[in-house]
Write a structure and sequence with these properties.
Length: 107
């Protein structure tokens, strides 16, 4: 079972293949996901501090480039299916942004 370390939180053991955005939300991280997990808004961005988040899909790469996020360790948590240990830092949260989280992404 992969373990997710979230900056400011303890370790989270999860079932392999879960979407990172749902793992974060289900474990008390108030991550934004304004587009409902469809790789359109970039509000669910995370910084990958350690580990391999897997390959980036075309939709994720396009929206990150379009919005000017070119750092290789910045990813959309709605597009990551966790298959190994990761250490992450959420970039936008409900409490910091003062916005509604958005529609819950599908499994």
């Amino acid at each position: 079972m992969p373990t997710i370390l979230v900056e400011g939180k303890g370790p989270i053991e999860i079932e392999e293949g879960k979407k990172l955005v749902l793992v974060l939300e289900d474990h008390g991280v108030d991550i934004l996901h304004r587009c409902g997990g469809n790789a359109r808004c970039t509000t669910c961005r995370v910084e990958i501090l350690e580990g391999d988040a897997g390959p980036m899909g075309e939709a994720e790469a396009e929206i990150l480039e379009k919005k000017g996020f070119t750092e290789p360790n910045i990813r959309l948590s709605c597009q990551i299916r966790v298959h190994m240990d990761l250490s992450v830092k959420p970039i936008m949260t409900v409490s910091e942004a003062g916005m509604d989280a958005g529609k819950r992404p599908e499994e």
